[in-house]
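Continued from yesterday's entry.
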Amino acid sequence: MGGMATNASVVLAIGTKKGLWVGTSTDRKTWDFTGPHFLMNEIPGIGIDTRGGRTRILVAARSEHWGTNVVHSDYFGANWTEPEQAAIAFPPDTGAALERIWQLQPDSTDRPGVVWAGCEPISVWKSTDGGEHFELNRGLWDHPHRSQWGAGFGGAAAHTVLPSPADLQTVHVAMSTGGVYRSTDGGESWEARNHGISAYFMPDPQPEFGQCVHKIARDAVQPERLYAQNHHGVYRSDDNADSWTSIADGLPADFGFVMLSHPRRSGTAWVIPIKADGERIPPDGKLAVHRTDDAGASWIRADAGLPQSEYNVVLRDAAATDTAEPVGVYFGTRGGSVYASADEGTTFTEVASHLPDVLCVRAAVVAG
């Protein structure tokens, strides 16, 4: 495990269409799993909060009968706590109802208790008590562009929330289909930040907003640098999303959902290409992860340990990294297989199989 402490382990949480599985490992080779937790609940969002010497697994559980709520466990899934009242509930004046929680994102270590949620319908929420209660961000909800935001194929959602570790006031959000929005005043106001990202499917292929950005990630060392996987297009911004440039050269396809960045090293990111919007399979039916170590100037293909033939794809939040040394890379497919790499995505091992459709994967290093 390289430089990972001997008394540490990794927790791996897998959200599927029909429940949650939680795994732990001390070597990232052998895993002990429990589950399914929340059987027959859809689990589209997971957050693992390791701040303050505690590991809290936050889960967005969606029942077709009971609706959607945020539940949490401080004991690796041995028991769960669910608030008596819904953790996320739209104020009556909005006339809206919560459909799905797409992301649960703990903030940085110097903002204890702060957890962000991105939801469907398109909305951003903030908790200051570790994810037990959330408040609607009215700045984005009341944005004048709202009536023109459309639904992506998976729904109209704020699927990515990226608070900046360098600046308390800066938060980025990505949504389908509005694109990237940025706040520099702590969420009071938001501006579209999509210059350079193409929306070839619209009458104006370079609109102010309306892009279908599938995922964004932030560089750990240079927080003003971001990476984006678009609905056809892979991009980098070096100016806090004021402008974007293509980094798709060298990839077998520019379509996909996944965008991961290295938790410590600048310039390293991972994507998992899909052939095209109309052919949603890995290119040539061969699943592979592509890594850049130079901020997108070049890409390295990695498929060691992956199946020779695979026609299932990886959804936007069904991939994650840990913070061990070397960094672990994890992802799950719509066919129910989950793969783990303990060498920064060079080689993979299947650690779970025959699960329901994998929607979300999260991993974290925790104290033993």
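--- second protein ---
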Amino acid sequence: MKQAVIVCHRGASLMAPENTIASLEKAIDIGADVVEFDVRPSRDGILYVLHDAEVDRTTSGTGRIADMNSADIDALDAGSWFGPEFAGERVPRLDAFLDTCKGRIATYVEIKEGDPAEIRDMLAVRGMLEDAWTFSFDQAIRAEARAKVPDLKRMVLYMHVGSVDRAVAQDAQILEFHHDNVEEDLVARAKEAGLITQMFYAGDDRAVFEKAVRCGVEQMNIDHVDVFRSVERELMTPV
């Protein structure tokens, strides 16, 4: 049994404010293999790392990021909401975020809004394309990525495609399961088809993590890294 690849969801978001350089650094510190983060553009076309369409929840500002200019976004405090020690943390521009990742951690880019080709080129110019992949909940963005940037690896969700064969037909490289649809036979079938298997789970139920390990899921997109590694160690330790 091989240890799973750890994908830190929005960085180490339990230790630092999500989708910030601080959460990225914490993910690297705890030994994560990949950082997952979300991308959206400002009104003047600068790509930022931010999950929500509005800045209200995770910054000192209010309103839609798509209606804000980059100068205004750059002035926001994206850390104080999480804890006073993170006061002054900024909403990262994508270029700065990628520069911090380069040579240190692989990247999983969830495109909330934005041009997949621009993101692909930003990865390629930094020599990061080989260890990167993308996904979007927006069907149009998924289709655009498949058509325009076939060399940027893509992930699909089992809940969207409904079968391993359909994931292969969509030229995906990664198939992500959730705790309610991961099954050992599906994981095995996906691997046989040449897909990398991944599971997303934001909770900390040890039984869910145990199932993922027993199913042989190769990558875990999670928040509670310590709990998962504990379960994994228990199951991998010979009795």
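The longest strand covers residues 34-41. Residues 36 and 158 are 18 Å apart (CA to CA). Will compare against the first tomorrow.
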